[in-house]
Amino acid sequence: MHELQIAQNIITIINEELEKNNRTEKVRDVVFVAGRMRAIIPETLTFSFDVQKKEHRQLSDANLTIREVDIIIQCRDCGAQHSIDEPTFHCKKCLSTNIEIKSGNELYVDCVELFDGNEEKG
Question: Which of 3, 35, 91, 120 could hold 75 in an S-S bridge, CB 3.0 to 4.6 Å?
Answer without folding.
Answer: 91
